[in-house]
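User: I'm preparing a small set of examples for a lab meeting where we compare how different chains pack in three dimensions. I only have the primary sequence for this one, and I'd like the structure in token form so I can line it up with the others. Please keep the answer compact; I'll paste it straight into my notes.
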Amino acid sequence: MVQREVNPVVLFQSWLELAKTGGDSDPEAMTLATMGLNGFPTVRVVLYKGLLENDILFFTNYESHKGLELAANPRMALVFYWPKIYRQVRMQGVASKVDRTVSEAYFATRPRASQLGAWASHQSAIATEADIAARYATYDTQFKDQSVPCPPEWGGYRCAIQAWEFWEGRPHRLHSRTCYQLQGTEFIKESLSP
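Assistant: Understood. Below is the structure token output for the 194-residue chain.
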């Protein structure tokens, strides 16, 4: 049964915690959909990195396909699906880059190898494994015995969610669906047919 929190962010957080304790292997994996530059939708899995003032947060290379697509059209959709607890949350909203200080602070928490990988990978560009390994070695030498700085093309996005849909699987496909739609400054809650 759907929990009846007034705030969809609170409900989302409670479901995420349930997924973490319920045995889902990667509960913070979320599917991000953007509009491709060629007019086709594109979808990929990214990792949820928390909330920033109730906005969903993730990090990436701004020059990746997703970064270029969000620069051209910031409208996006996210989906969390947790099969072990038979629940899903769909979201629609608008993405914007976070402040540079937020990106740098998060980047500093990443393992050194991941930091070097962010420098070595020109995400989505055609490259051989040898090219990437050579760039990695170059940056490993360049930043030897010092902190690895955050690359200028790497950072976070905050997704301001305007619509939430909470789906809970039930027997006989009579699933529970509750939608929260932003109207002005408040979310309006509606129940939907399965």
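A couple of notes for your slides: The chain has one domain: 8-107+152-192. The longest helix spans residues 8-21.

User: Perfect, thanks.
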